[in-house]
């Protein structure tokens, strides 16, 4: 199983994307400021400040700098859980439901009802895939599942309505909540990121810098289509 993080296609318009990617790769999620929309959803759903991953999927809206990571061997030590849909999409009314959600309290109650304990994800996610997809690769490709509770599986919803999302409290962990396996970067981004690390970054310790540079040399795939290449890995892992 892989957990996936990515940056939106327009992220390169802001120089902050380099800081976000660096902090994700060294598991310093506590240094990443949430967007206003994310902060509002976290407060409304009572999640706390979190880092987020999609389980075995990358989304059409997040197509650059895709980090495919291994989940921890023992997730029970983490503060967090999973939802079988995008939490921000739920809170901000982007997920169409039947019956429709009455109000914010209804959305929050549905999230609590749908919550999967983080140490149950390794068993519950494959079980859900087995009963929802044939073949299972349909999930990676964004195909709607065979069934869904309340949130409509299919049009007018987009795949984030049935993509599993892991959330882990954004704390300075001694043992990282995920271990990066491979980074898929657009060819236009890779040199920019390396230049940032070499010339502009002052927040990494020397040992952190050397370890990150060594990891990048062995684990970056520079490509014109990061999402397509990442999806090929994910299809083989599901």
> How many strand segments?
8
Q: Strand-residue fraction?
A: 15-25%
Strand order, sheet with most strands: 5-4-6-2-1-3-7-8
Distance between the termini: 7 Å
Number of helices in the DSSP assignment: 9
Range of helix content: 25-40%
The poorly predicted ranges are: none
| Alpha carbon gyration radius | 18 Å
Give the topology string: H per helix, E per strand: EHHEEEHHEHHEEHHEH
Structural class: alpha+beta
In round numbers, the mean pLDDT is 93
Which SSEs are present, and which pair or pack?
Elements: E1 3-7, H1 17-25, H2 36-45, E2 50-55, E3 64-70, E4 80-83, H3 87-91, H4 104-114, E5 116-117, H5 121-132, H6 137-140, E6 165-169, E7 179-186, H7 187-200, H8 206-219, E8 220-223, H9 226-237
Parallel strand pairs: 7-8
Antiparallel strand pairs: 1-2, 1-3, 2-6, 3-7, 4-5, 4-6
What features would you describe in this structure?
- The chain is an alpha+beta fold.
- Strands 5-4-6-2-1-3-7-8 form an 8-stranded mixed beta sheet, sandwiched between helices.
- The model has no long low-confidence stretch (mean pLDDT 93).
- The chain has 9 helices and 8 strands.
Features of the shown structure:
238 residues, alpha+beta, eight-stranded mixed β-sheet, 9 helices, 8 strands, 17% strand
Task: Give a short summary of the structure.
With 238 residues, the chain is an alpha+beta fold.
């Amino acid at each position: 199983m892989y957990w996936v993080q990515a940056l939106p296609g327009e992220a390169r318009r802001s120089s902050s994307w380099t800081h976000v990617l660096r902090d994700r790769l060294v598991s310093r999620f506590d240094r990443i400021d949430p967007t206003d929309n994310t902060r509002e959803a976290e407060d409304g759903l009572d999640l706390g400040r979190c880092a987020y991953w999609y389980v075995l999927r990358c989304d059409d809206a997040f197509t650059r700098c895709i980090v495919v990571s291994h989940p921890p061997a023992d997730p029970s030590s983490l503060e967090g859980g999973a939802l079988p849909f995008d939490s921000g999409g739920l809170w901000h009314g982007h997920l169409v439901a039947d019956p429709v959600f009455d109000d914010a309290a209804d959305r929050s109650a549905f999230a609590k009802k749908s919550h999967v304990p983080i140490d149950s994800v390794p068993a519950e996610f494959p079980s859900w895939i087995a009963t929802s997809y044939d073949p299972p690769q349909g999930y990676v490709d964004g195909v709607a599942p065979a069934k869904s509770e309340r949130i409509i599986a299919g049009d007018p919803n987009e795949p984030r309505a049935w993509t599993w999302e892991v959330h882990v409290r954004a704390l300075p962990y001694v043992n990282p909540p995920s271990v990066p396996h491979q980074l898929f970067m657009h060819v236009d981004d890779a040199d920019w990121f390396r230049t940032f690390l070499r010339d502009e970054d002052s927040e990494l310790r020397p040992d952190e810098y050397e370890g990150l540079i060594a990891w990048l040399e062995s684990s970056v795939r520079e490509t014109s289509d990061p999402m397509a290449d990442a999806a090929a890995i994910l299809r083989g892992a599901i």
